[in-house]
Amino acid sequence: MITVMKDMFISKDFKFILLIVSLIFxxxxxxxxxxxxxxxxxxxxxxxxxxxxxxxxVVIDSELNTVRDTLPENTDLTSLVPIITISDNASISPASxxxxxxxxxxxxxxxxxxxTNKVYTVILEVKEPVIVVPKSDDNxxxxxxxxxxxxxxxxxxxxxxxxVPFGTDISSLKVDLDVHPKATVNPxxxxxxxxxxxxxxxxxxxxxxxxxxxxxxxxxxxDVGIRGVWLxxxxxxxxxxxxxxxxxxxLCDELNINTIFVVTWNKALTTYPSQVAAxxxxxxxxxxxxxxxxxxELIDAAHAKDIKVMAWFEYGFAAFNxxxxxxxxxxxxxxxxxxVDGNIVVKNGFYWMNAxxxxxxQFMIDLVTEVVENYPDIDGVQGDDxxxxxxxxxxxxPYTVELYKDAHGGEEPPTQSKSINWLRxxxxxxxxxxxxxxxxxxxxxxxMIVAMSPSPLSFGYDEYLQDYTTWVEDxxxxxxxxxxxRRESQGLEVYKxxxxxxxxxxxxQDQSIFYPGLLLFLGGYLPSQQFIADMVQSNRAQGxxxxxxxxYTGFTDPNVQEVLKAMYPEKAxxxxx
Length: 577
Description:
Largest sheet: 8 strands, parallel
């Protein structure tokens, strides 16, 4: 009984203790918060460098996960201490304050409190050194050009000498000056000045230093010479009607051109009624002009404007282009030029007549003198780079071979077509023909001008046996216009060099009949206004007072008209030939 009571007592105590513990545990739980949620913030908030100031300013892009900055010039990127601010409770690796080499991009990993990561790429640049450029002291005038008239001045020290064509109004001219971009000029080049007396231009460099130039302008004497143009029926329809002829003549008159060299012989056809051509080719005139006489129409229109006309025999001894053509198809074999292999000579697409044979020579003389006879009021006739001429590959036909053998004790001509003595012997034959042609024209009309337009020496001599200095020296060429066809891409100095070399081949007393041919238009080529002016003024500087343009179609371009009016503000005096 006592034992039972004791057990009951112990049980009550134990239950009480359990109750107390439960109350304490419940109280503790009811007084506290729910379990704390861990942060997911893992951002770089700022990124600086220990000891570095003057940077461009860090740019942190948490979408692209990049950190960019530009540090001052000369910063050593190989050893930098970054000071990095990140989200609370986050960590970063590599750690802030850890020395790193930032020569290449560096990767940093930011770990949030909840363990999530964000990877940043740190990209640094260094500012380029600021180069302090001293202010320019350039106060030079490198080039002087009169606006609108395309005349360049010649610079000698601080003196500029400009020579303008006769008839130019120099009382109000503007200039173009080539000076340093940061230099200034006084007076303003775009302000017109009166150059009747010297004008001083002062150039101030960027650094303030000044230099003055005195411009002295002189007017050239009135030209005494030929200002000519070749008028062809290739790439031109001028000869297609009388109205177009008159329009072309009017334009030439407006540009102060005083001579027209009109094509009368090309493509085995004439631009005038010809019985000589008809006897060989069956065509009295180019069928395009049937029922008309373009040569007559041109002579009448040009003479009404006091413009000379010369009949231009463009093809000369070239029979046809692309095939033997009607001349060689209708004549004996000895009319054909023959090369060392016994083939007909074809050069640059042209099939050639045998310029050494008397029958062929007489045909050409008859063709030229026919114009002289039928048009007694025409001013002259003109040969070309094919008249008098023959390719140096020719001369191996039976007639010429026998002629050579007779003159050389039975010796055969050299097989090398450009053997020195062989070239000379055949060039002399061409010269002899040139004299016969000249004498035949003068016999018909002593006042008729005989002009020639050969290829330049030495090319003309080596390739076509043209020895034009002999024609001039021996007196059977009244006007010579070597074809100095140089393009603008070749440069003015190339033209000037060719001009000087050709002009100075002539004796001083013969240089007055030298009027070079200039390339004005061919296919898509048309030189700039300044290049045209530079060629003309190069001629004047050489002492040449005229030129002939190939060819008329270029005159229809407004830019060409503008520059020619500047070069020829007044008419030239026609030379006494």
